């Protein structure tokens, strides 16, 4: 029996099953992906701009991290401020 | 300003290199200066599909390492004006592909090209990540098959979070779906995911549907991008795809209904 004979009979629901399974797994994986959400880079950039109004820092001095445990999400924000003298000298 | 386009998929063997070759050729045929880069370090194939394998002297990694300059490594296509190929290295490992090195080359290419097409390797490792990092637009090549669709969704997630545009908070990479190896009669029978199914799951806009076609293998045997095979269904589908990319509003051919008649004419129906 050739492979096409196999597919020919009877009219199949194979694609419908594939679609259903895909919709479930893709939704699930997109959910997981949110543990590093798409908005984080933009959030980081905007935070940097706000902090810079007051203290001179660069991109590497700001760390944004989102943790997820069950239903609980923690947004961790870490900003390293420059030394006092540096800050004064830049005033 | 040059546009960088990555041809990506996650899953292997879905038609990225076939698509990169025809897409780049089509852009060049329409008068745009186009460079197509093979990012598949260690497993280069684009040179074979483009039919220039015997003219490779220097490669992408040689240029990154300053062992050759870009002009020495770029291969000018003999059939189509404005088309250049930058081959991958066959011998180095992927670690040679640094972000700084890739950026340097892309910046240099941007000086003199309109479009830079990056043929991604399969997977989501260094080569694949480097090929998409600097992209402005992405052709996501997908086969109507569960693992390919899932991997494409994964790649969409990476484009949205790990590309330079995402990291810098710029406008996101523009995503286009290329549904390749489509067999409408099988979709009609309910054996294969249909165009609409894949579109519904992935939720990005459809740039083109490339039918499953024996001409693709024949043209790869000959080292001729299939878009140059006039009268072939896959070639015509790629040609439409390029026109759509450039803004023409063309209806999709080779879908369910039209395709049947077309196939029948081509193969005498069976
Ligand atoms: N529309 C098509 N019809 C028939 N065969 C096709 C079609 N597109 C691609 N193929 C075949 O599928 C195989 C893989 O194609 P290709 O090398 O373009 O995929 P790829 O995604 O670049 O693979 P890799 O992940 O290994 O780089 C080749 O043998 C090619 O001839
Ligand atoms: Mg390939």
Automatic annotation (TrEMBL), chain A:
Keywords: Cell cycle, Cell division. One of its GO terms (biological process) is cell division. InterPro entries: MinE, MinE_sf. It comes from the Bacteria. The keyword Glycoprotein does not apply. Belongs to the MinE family. This is Cell division topological specificity factor. It comes from Candidatus Competibacter phosphatis. Prevents the cell division inhibition by proteins MinC and MinD at internal division sites while permitting inhibition at polar sites. This ensures cell division at the proper site by restricting the formation of a division septum at the midpoint of the long axis of the cell. NCBIfam families: minE, PRK00296.1.
Automatic annotation (TrEMBL), chain B:
This is Septum site-determining protein MinD. InterPro entries: AAA_dom, MinD, MinD_FleN, P-loop_NTPase, ParA/MinD_ATPase. The keyword Cell wall biogenesis/degradation does not apply. ATPase required for the correct placement of the division site. Cell division inhibitors MinC and MinD act in concert to form an inhibitor capable of blocking formation of the polar Z ring septums. Rapidly oscillates between the poles of the cell to destabilize FtsZ filaments that have formed before they mature into polar Z rings. It comes from the Bacteria. Belongs to the ParA family. MinD subfamily. Keywords: ATP-binding, Cell cycle, Cell division, Nucleotide-binding, Septation. Interacts with MinC and FtsZ. Pfam families: AAA_31 (PF13614). The keyword Cell cycle applies. Residues 3-150 form the AAA domain. SUPFAM superfamilies: P-loop containing nucleoside triphosphate hydrolases.
């Amino acid at each position: 029996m050739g492979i096409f004979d196999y597919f020919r009979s009877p009219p199949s629901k194979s694609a419908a099953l594939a679609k259903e399974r895909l919709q479930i797994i893709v939704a699930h994986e997109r959910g997981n992906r949110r543990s590093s959400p798409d908005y984080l880079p933009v959030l980081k950039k905007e935070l940097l701009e706000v902090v810079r109004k007051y203290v001179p820092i660069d991109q590497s001095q700001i760390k944004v991290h989102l943790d997820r445990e069950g239903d609980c999400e923690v947004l961790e924000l870490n900003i390293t401020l420059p030394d006092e003298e540096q800050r004064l000298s830049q005033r | 300003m040059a546009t960088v386009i990555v041809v990506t998929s996650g899953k292997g063997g879905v038609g990225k290199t076939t698509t990169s070759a025809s897409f780049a050729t089509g852009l060049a045929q329409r008068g745009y200066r186009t460079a197509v880069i093979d990012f598949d370090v260690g497993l280069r194939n684009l040179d074979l599909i483009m039919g220039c394998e015997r003219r490779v002297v220097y490669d992408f990694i040689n240029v990154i390492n300053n062992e050759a300059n870009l002009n020495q490594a770029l291969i000018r296509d003999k059939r189509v004006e404005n088309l250049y190929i930058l081959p991958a290295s066959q011998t180095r490992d992927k670690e040679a592909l640094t972000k700084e090195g890739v950026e340097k080359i892309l910046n240099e290419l941007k000086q003199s090209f309109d479009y830079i097409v990056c043929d991604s390797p399969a997977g989501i490792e260094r080569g694949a990540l480097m090929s998409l990092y600097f992209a402005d637009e992405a052709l996501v090549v997908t086969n109507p098959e569960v693992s390919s669709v899932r991997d494409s969704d994964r790649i969409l997630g990476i484009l949205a979070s790990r590309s330079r545009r995402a990291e810098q908070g710029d406008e996101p990479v523009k995503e286009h779906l290329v549904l390749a190896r489509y067999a409408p009669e099988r979709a009609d029978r309910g054996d294969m995911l249909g165009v609409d199914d894949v579109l519904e799951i992935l939720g990005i806009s459809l740039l083109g549907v490339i039918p499953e076609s024996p001409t693709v293998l024949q043209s790869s045997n000959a080292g001729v991008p299939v878009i140059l095979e006039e009268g072939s269904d896959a070639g015509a589908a790629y040609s439409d795809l390029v026109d759509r990319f450039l803004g023409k509003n063309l209806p999709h051919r080779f879908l369910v209904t039209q395709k049947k008649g077309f196939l029948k004419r081509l193969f005498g129906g069976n």
